[in-house]
Amino acid sequence: AGGNKVIKYGTTGANVLALEVVLPSGEVTWFGGKRRKDVTGLDLVHLIAGSEGTLGVVTKVVVKLVPRQEYVVDLLVPFPGVDEAIGFVPRVIRETGLIPSSLEFMDKTSLDLVSRYIGSSLPFADAEAHLIIQLEGGDDDVLADQYERIGDLCFEGGALEVFVADNRNFRDQLWKARKNISEAIIALYRKYTKEDLAVPTSAIPDLMKGIERVCHTYALESANFGHVGDGNMHVNILAGEDREDWREAIEEARLDLYRLTVELGGTLSGEHGVGLKRKKYLPMFLDEPQMRLIRGIKRVFDPNMILNPGKILD
């Protein structure tokens, strides 16, 4: 799992120190422990944590915790175009030296849909893209200086405006929009597919251009949003209600997007996992030696194939 704070704090798996696991044999064992450093044997903690329940049943977890920051501010930054918004992202860290706790992207289609769903809209609703840049800290004055520096940089990068959400109501409003996009798509579309592509952050501009090109080829739409700060984009391919060949069109578009993602050095899923839906596409992203090792690890842990059957592997 990932979420919107990976850019600063890492993935859930990266913060797992230890696991109590019930193996398919019925044996109960611990992997890892309450220690910051451990290179004894293989790193089975993260193997189990990333296995989607196919290697064991996790019954206890020890995780790293970080202090909750006292002050939080979100910047809502509308841009006239997707290219401007995406192109601005690497400048945030490179030119300020600051690491936001969140750096999120929403395109106009996503915001239009969620506005219909929740019955309210964010400022500059006609903008083609919005970024949410969240900063956290223990000193209010230091945080104010940081968001002013980033705000000035946003205007240099072509932003239409910079809204400072330094109160709970405004923060809740913008995060309500961001967190309800998936629900809006489910409620308003029957014919769609959701992808969870992740690429190197330097490749996001090419990914976005590719999404537009692929959707144009198959006469489809897309609603794109996600954790742009770490390269993870949630791509939703949408077909109109009257489209009869929508399954075939979306499948062809999906395959083209996967091929592009491979070319860009990306991966099939950044945080949602493989599960049932994506397992048949794994060989597009993993070569035969990797697939052979995955199958072998599964057989070692679960020779009778009783745990989460059908997930990742048949």
Using brief descriptors, characterize the structure shown:
314 residues, alpha+beta, Uridine Diphospho-n-acetylenolpyruvylglucosamine Reductase, domain 3, Alpha-Beta Plaits, 7-stranded antiparallel beta sheet, 3-stranded antiparallel beta sheet, 21% strand, globular
Fold and architecture overview:
The chain is an alpha+beta fold and about 325 residues long. The chain folds into three domains: about 5-65 and about 275-300, Uridine Diphospho-n-acetylenolpyruvylglucosamine Reductase, domain 3, CATH 3.30.465.10; about 70-185, Alpha-Beta Plaits, CATH 3.30.70.2190; about 190-265, Alpha-Beta Plaits. It is about 40% helix and about 20% strand. The protein contains eleven helices and ten strands. It has helices at about 5-10, 45-50, 80-95, 110-120, 140-155, 170-180, 180-190, 205-215, 245-265, 280-285, 290-300; strands spanning about 15-20, 30, 55-65, 70-80, 100-105, 130-135, 165, 190-200, 220-225, 230-240. The protein has a seven-stranded antiparallel beta sheet with strand order 7-4-6-5-9-10-8, with helices on both faces. α3 (about 80-95) crosses α5 (about 140-155), α4 (about 110-120) packs across α7 and α8 packs antiparallel against α9 (about 245-265). The longest helix has 18 residues, at about 245-265. The radius of gyration is 21 Å and the shape is globular. The model has no long low-confidence stretch (mean pLDDT about 95).
Would you summarize the structure shown here?
This protein is of the alpha+beta class.
Mind telling me which CATH architecture of the largest domain this is? 2-Layer Sandwich
Distance between the first and last residues' Cα = 22 Å
Could you name the CATH class of the largest domain?
Answer: Alpha Beta
Estimated share of beta-strand residues = 15-25%
CATH fold annotation of the largest domain = Alpha-Beta Plaits
How many extended strands?
Answer: 10
Question: What coarse outline follows from CA principal-axis ratios?
Answer: globular
Unreliable parts: none
What is the topology, as strand order, of the major beta sheet? Answer: 7-4-6-5-9-10-8
List the helices and strands in order.
HEEHEEHEHEHEHHEHEEHHH
Tally the helices. 11
Structural class: alpha+beta
Any idea what the radius of gyration is?
Answer: 21 Å
Number of domains: 3
Helix content: 25-40%
Give the averaged pLDDT, no decimals: 95
Largest sheet: 7 strands, antiparallel
